[in-house]
Amino acid sequence: MAGKKYEKYINKNCYRIPKDDNLQIYSTRQLPDFGSGNFSIDCKQVGKPHVMIEHPHKHTFDQYLSFFGTDMKDLKDFGAEIELCLGEEQEKHIINTPTVVFVEAGLIHGPIEWRKVERPVIFIDIAMTNNYARK
To answer: pLDDT tens digits for 62-108?
Structure first.
């Protein structure tokens, strides 16, 4: 059977196991030739406190870090507390409500510490590149 006309726009291989974790995540980072090449996404559920990113770093591309609760009856009931540092001076920000952080290209960010997790939180990392790398 021949392929469909718009089949190239659909990819069902959107999961992977990161090198630093044993949990599968939804991702397009392993698909460098998918789409126009200026977008990748990682999406995972976080269920326990941990340090997600230990060291400050930056990228050559824009990035969006998204933190969403999972209480579908009350989307504002976040159930977690995350500390995120931004800039060379390590300015600390506490995330305790659904939040999206825009990290422009070149902005130093990290560490990211999940201090408290009462129930799972959805973390979505959107990078405006198909070649994700930290500097």
So the answer is: 999 999 999 989 989 999 999 999 999 999 999 999 999 999 999 99
Cα angle for residues 29, 30, 32 (degrees, 5° grid): 80
pTM above threshold 0.85:
yes
State phi, psi for 94 to the nearest 5 degrees: -105, 125
Which helix (H) or strand (E) is 122 found in, with range? strand 121-127
Domains within the chain, CATH numbers bracketed: 41-127 (2.60.120.10)
Tokens 């990228």, located at residue: 59
- Going by C-alpha positions, the residue among 129, 122, 77 that lies closest to residue 103 is 129
Phi, psi of 41 (to 5 degrees): -145, 140
